[in-house]
């Protein structure tokens, strides 16, 4: 395994999990260990990941910026959390059932963001969301970024959808996101600087997936909430959404086989987690975008 020179320059020991660039899921390329590759990292969106020093821009007089994130223990969520930490943020995240995976994510986060922490929370229950934010307030004195990523997903045949399934999907995805955004906005609106909320939705909000009605309804609702919050809290809070299309780490999420779906993607491939991360990093830096949904789908919605 080859350690990137940038990792060494950044002060992290070689061999730290996630600290080498032979993992294509993180960069999409293999580290060559030469100066050209180091310069590439410094000049592109890949600069967000583990290996780079925290830039002066990511720091403030009171210390590191702070991100509250829901759903960071899953495959994509973990990648997002690690990338945000690589931008100089302390990350406080929630998990529900996946304690082991959450602990792994936290261990990796703390290599570059020692003050990061996590809490168990059922996002479908507003009381637990309030408790998570109460702990957050005890640990941190600011909130720069909320990433609302927690989500349930599974097929539900329309004629057979039960109330339990509906509540499980809609309460977690839509109700949970609303009350998380509400709690975050309560902190952010009192601050003297511009903060950001990024919701994670899905291009299914604009498609008809007959076997996923509660899920797609919940994601469409989040997109509308994004616009409402953006209008209500401008100019102090920028609120946007990222809507992934077919992602390579989540095969079988739609009604058709992946090979058939690729035929409907003009760019000719499923998305990679890095594609989603780049969109999030863009919104983290943007100062003149709010109320928008960025579809990261390779052109899938053109069909």
Summarize the model shown.
This protein is an alpha/beta fold and 303 residues long.
Descriptive tags:
disordered N terminus; 2 domains; 10 helices; 41% helix; 303 residues; 8-stranded mixed sheet; 8 strands; single chain; alpha/beta
Secondary structure layout plus pairing:
Layout: H1 5-9, H2 24-27, H3 35-43, E1 59-60, E2 63-70, H4 75-86, E3 89-95, H5 99-112, E4 117-120, H6 126-139, E5 145-148, H7 163-188, E6 195-200, H8 213-233, E7 237-244, H9 258-262, H10 273-285, E8 293-296
Rg, alpha carbons: 19 Å
- Give the N-to-C terminal Cα separation: 42 Å
pLDDT under 50 segments (min length 5)?
1-62
CATH class wording of the largest domain: Alpha Beta
- The average pLDDT value, as a whole number, equals 82
Question: Helical content, roughly?
Answer: 40-55%
Q: How many strands?
A: 8
In CATH, the topology of the largest domain is named: Rossmann fold
CATH superfamily of the largest domain: NAD(P)-binding Rossmann-like Domain
Give the second-level CATH assignment, the architecture of the largest domain. Answer: 3-Layer(aba) Sandwich
């Amino acid at each position: 395994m080859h350690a990137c020179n940038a990792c060494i320059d950044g002060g992290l020991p070689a061999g730290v999990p996630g600290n080498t660039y032979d993992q294509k899921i993180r960069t999409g390329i293999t580290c060559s260990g030469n100066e050209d590759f180091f310069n590439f990292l410094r000049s592109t969106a890949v600069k967000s990941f583990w290996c780079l020093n925290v830039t002066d821009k990511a720091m403030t007089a009171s210390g590191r910026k702070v991100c509250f994130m829901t759903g960071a223990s899953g495959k994509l969520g973990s990648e997002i959390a690690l990338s945000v930490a690589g931008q100089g943020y302390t990350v406080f995240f929630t998990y529900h059932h996946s304690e082991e995976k959450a602990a792994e994510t936290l261990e990796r986060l703390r290599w570059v963001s020692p003050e990061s922490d996590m809490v168990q929370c059922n996002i479908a229950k507003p009381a637990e969301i309030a408790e998570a934010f109460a702990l957050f307030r005890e640990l941190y004195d600011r909130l720069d970024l909320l990433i609302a990523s927690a989500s349930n997903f599974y097929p539900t045949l329309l004629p057979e959808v039960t109330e339990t399934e509906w509540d499980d999907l809609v309460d977690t995805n839509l109700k949970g996101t609303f009350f998380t955004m509400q709690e975050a906005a309560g902190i952010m609106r009192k601050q003297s600087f511009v903060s950001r909320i990024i919701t994670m939705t899905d291009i299914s909000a604009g498609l008809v997936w007959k076997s996923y009605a509660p899920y797609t309804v919940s994601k469409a609702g989040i997109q509308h909430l994004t616009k409402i919050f953006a209008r209500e809290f401008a100019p102090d809070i920028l609120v946007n959404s990222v809507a992934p299309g077919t992602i390579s780490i989540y095969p079988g999420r739609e009604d058709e086989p992946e090979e058939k779906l690729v035929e409907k993607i003009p760019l000719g491939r499923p998305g990679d987690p890095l594609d989603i991360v780049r969109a999030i990093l863009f919104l983290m830096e943007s100062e003149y975008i709010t109320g928008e949904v960025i579809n990261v789908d390779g052109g899938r919605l053109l069909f």
